[in-house]
């Protein structure tokens, strides 16, 4: 099958590679041409403008966007409107808020262009093991795209989730669950590290053990084992954790629908917390403990001296 890929970041490039290995014809475009040329050397057909990309495709065209969520997607969709034809398909595969899908699908529908939203999970390992694909939007378009979905995903690794926005909605919930799981692992290893047994335990060995039939075994725990094997104390990593936005959207959705989701909410708050050091809130807590109980405090001077 023929498909175009716009956006050649780590995910986009590896998706192109997997599609090429599956025998598909892939036209590639990236804002910076170096990545386009790199993919051309691996067998993709390069396009150095969106108009060239559209010209290389045979109707009904299928154009997959793997771009950062936000204005970049809107800018490309605005440009594609005048280049695509009724019946063509735009696939939005980034980490997008599902309500943005509703707006964008309605905009493209005015031109007769079909819109499909795909939540993609798999990270840098997707090239090797395949991508989990959560698909929403036009059902007929989904049926048309099955050959490329089957190539990108492992067995049983893609699902039509419903109308426009459903794919990204399911991915949003998926990432919220991921936040909670990661936080639980992080807290557990922190308890082990701070325990009387911490010096004698290697986190890599504990992670490996738990992956042997334990109820907490998972791919995330396998990744933790790999990280600990490189550096047991993770001493070369700063504990600053970003968030892609989907955790925020999941918490907002829980609030909007009155669903109690304390684990996901607290895991998101802890990511915010990881970016702070010596916060005012912490200083208030320390001061209050001193005032009501006479507890000692560490002064800034003492901390700097250490």
Features:
single chain; 8-stranded mixed beta sheet; 53% helix; disordered C terminus
Question: Would you kindly provide a brief summary of this structure?
Answer:
The protein is built from 14 helices and eight strands. The chain has helices spanning 10-21, 33-41, 50-56, 71-81, 98-109, 126-129, 139-152, 166-194, 203-210, 219-230, 246-257, 262-274, 280-293, 300-305, and strands at residues 2-6, 25-29, 45-46, 62-65, 89-92, 114-121, 132-137, 158-162.
Question: What does this protein structure show overall?
Answer:
This protein is α/β, with parallel strands linked by helices and 306 residues long. The chain has helices at 10-21, 33-41, 50-56, 71-81, 98-109, 126-129, 139-152, 166-194, 203-210, 219-230, 246-257, 262-274, 280-293, 300-305; strands at 2-6, 25-29, 45-46, 62-65, 89-92, 114-121, 132-137, 158-162. An eight-stranded mixed sheet has the order 3-2-1-4-5-6-7-8, with helices on both faces. Helix 8 (166-194) crosses helix 11, helix 8 packs across helix 12 (262-274) and helix 9 (203-210) packs antiparallel against helix 10. The longest helix has 29 residues, at 166-194. The N and C termini lie far apart (63 Å). Residues 302-306 have low confidence and may be disordered.
């Amino acid at each position: 099958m023929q498909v175009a890929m716009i956006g050649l970041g780590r995910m986009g490039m590896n998706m192109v590679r997997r599609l090429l290995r599956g025998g598909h014809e892939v036209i590639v475009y990236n804002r910076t041409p170096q990545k386009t040329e790199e993919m051309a050397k691996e067998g993709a057909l390069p396009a150095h403008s969106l108009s060239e990309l559209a010209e290389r495709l045979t109707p009904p065209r299928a154009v997959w966007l793997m771009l950062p969520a936000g204005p970049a997607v809107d800018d490309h969709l605005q440009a594609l409107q005048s280049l695509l034809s009724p019946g063509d398909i735009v696939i939005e595969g980034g980490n997008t808020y599902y309500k943005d899908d509703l707006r964008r699908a309605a905009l493209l529908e005015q031109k007769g262009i079909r819109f499909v939203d795909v939540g993609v999970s798999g990270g840098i390992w997707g090239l090797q093991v395949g991508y989990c694909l959560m698909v929403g939007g036009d059902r007929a378009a989904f049926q048309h795209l099955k050959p490329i979905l089957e190539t990108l995903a492992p067995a049983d690794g893609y699902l039509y989730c419903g109308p426009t926005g459903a794919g990204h909605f399911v991915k949003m919930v998926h990432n919220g669950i991921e936040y909670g799981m990661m936080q639980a692992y992080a807290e557990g290893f922190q308890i082990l590290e701070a325990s009387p047994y911490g010096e004698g335990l290697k986190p890599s060995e504990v992670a490996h053990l738990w992956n042997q039939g334990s109820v907490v075994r998972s791919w995330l725990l396998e990744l933790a084992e790999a990280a600990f094997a490189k550096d047991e104390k993770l001493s070369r990593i700063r504990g600053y954790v970003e968030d892609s936005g989907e955790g925020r959207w999941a918490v907002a959705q829980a609030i909007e629908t009155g669903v109690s989701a304390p684990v996901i909410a607290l895991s998101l708050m802890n990511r915010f917390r990881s970016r702070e050091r010596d916060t005012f809130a912490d200083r208030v807590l320390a001061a209050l403990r001193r005032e009501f109980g006479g507890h000692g405090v560490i002064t800034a001077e003492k901390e700097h001296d250490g």
